[in-house]
Amino acid sequence: xxxxxxxxxxxAVAQYPLTTQVQFxxxxxxxxxxxxxxFPGYATPLRxxxxxxxxxxxxxxxxxxxxxRVQSGGAxxxxxxxxxxxxxxxxxxxxxxxxxxSMDAAGTCAAAIVVxxxxx
Length: 120
Prior knowledge:
Shape: elongated
Helix content: 10-25%
Largest sheet: 7 strands, mixed
CATH topology: Elongation Factor Tu (Ef-tu), domain 3
Number of strands: 9
Radius of gyration: 18 Å
């Protein structure tokens, strides 16, 4: 399985600000008497990371774009290391089949990527 590239020269996966979302699924059963019973929809929460990369040079930008192409956008599955705590999540994908990139006159690039954990 492929791993999300550590594309920054600093050895980091992402830059700050980093947005992380944790999603739980709770099923609620409501009874006639008004009481409720709640239980988890799946065993573990799902995670989603919004990675903003600013001030990339051309090599860093190409590493991200090449990995995105190899994964065929959202079709590929790869492992992703959480930049906040270093945990490796083995079953992740890109949320979108497109990636937003830009380049300014000084030659610096920027990219915005959303990675999500899949249910195993």
